[in-house]
Amino acid sequence: MIDLVRGTKDLFGINLLKHKLIIKTAEQLAKKYNFQELQTPIIEKASLFTKALEQGTDVLDKEIYAFQDKGGEFLALRPEFTAPVMRHIINIGFNSNQPYKLFSYGPLFRYDRPQAGRQRQFSQLNFEIFGAKSIFYDAEIISLAKQILDELNIPNFKIAINYLGKTETKLKYQQILFKFFDTYKSDLSILSQTRLEKSPLRILDSKDEKDRKIILNAPTIEQVFDENDIKNFEELQNLLQVLKIDYFWDKHLVRGLSYYTGTIFEFLTDEIGAQSALLGGGRYDDLYANMGGKSINNQGLSAVGFAAGIERLSLVMHKNNFKKDLKIYILPLSEEENLESLLLATNLRKMTNFVIETLILNINLKKKLEIVAKCDGDYAIILGSEEIKSQNFSVRNMHTKETNKLSLDNIINISEF
Ligand code: HAM
To answer: What residues have CB less than 8 Å from 107, skipping those under 6 apart?
Structure first.
């Protein structure tokens, strides 16, 4: 046994097929919504993430894979896409007067305790819209996220939304939360006690049972909303209703990353255990300026986006919702039929999209059929001298265990089992 790095996995078989289908579905929808693809390097300067993600965020404080290279430069394996995508926007010089949409996908790295749905190397689909001041784009991005999950036939997910308001609103709320949690300080978990000074907002995300009881009574952010926050959030809710998107307002929803201002959302499932977020995102209108972007007409650059975990989507895609290509095995009855098997396989590969395998092995039919069953074959074509003469083939459906005589035309037209 040769060990893999903890929290990493080889991707093969059905999981690889699902992974590819998720990316294909996202690519097709990205195109429909007018996103362009951006690929960024997997390694970046570590300072990119220090600039983008405030301290007090787990991703930066505990989870980042940062190291010094042979030239002494501090580098990091990317833990998320938003900072690299924003770096790209700052570098190209954003000058568009219309929304600019970027789609990325690929591997990311976070040093966290691996469990179901949580890996140290994982992959995301990532969507960002820049120059998207209107709350309509928040609705559009949530609608896109929902469409991806719907097209992947992912059942039973819930959409939680909340609104953090602009930086001043967020700061006021942090102060109120600090006062509230400070009165319970000694009852809080050690982790929440350390978060109290740096980032009381993050306490709301605690999974600790005792913390959760305290959080139930914690003040909610709408107390500090100004008129504009109220108007925006109401409008978002109206738009979601018009788009027939079911959501619930989780007044204590916060995100693990610190750059959000305004709308935040998560799509949640009960099917993976503790790692319930299939995707998450929101609006981050200050990040451009915070990362040193030049002001555009005396303003910053508004942005909204989300990322979905490909492994988590894969876990909740039900096997029967996932259509794989039909797999057909050709089984020559004896050595005499080996050549015909090869010819039939070549023809079927040209004429169909089936996966075709021949079992040219010196074993009897029963053993060959056992292999087909073990390898998830859908059909076995049994080829004897009779079948070759009549061109009528014995085709065994491995799911129903029925065998029928089929012509080549009939075989080509098999659509399911
Ligand atoms: P995030 O919530 O950190 O947001 O990650 C988004 C999604 O990535 C999660 O909901 C989850 O599905 C998946 N994910 C995160 N960590 C892991 C892990 N260790 N193993 C497996 N899956 C994981 C962001 O990354 C933001 N950059 C999203 C965003 C884009 N906000 C605006 N634009």
So the answer is: 42, 121, 122, 123
